[in-house]
Amino acid sequence: MTKPLFRDTDPTGEILVKLGELGASVEHLLRDFADEKTAARDNRAAVHRRLDEQAQGLADVKTELALSRQLVETLAQTQAETVLPAVDDWQDMKKTGLTIVGFLALGGVSVGAALTWFSDQASVLVRHWLRIG
Question: Which of 25, 30, 38, 99 has CA atoms 20 to 30 A from the CA of 80?
Answer without folding.
Answer: 99
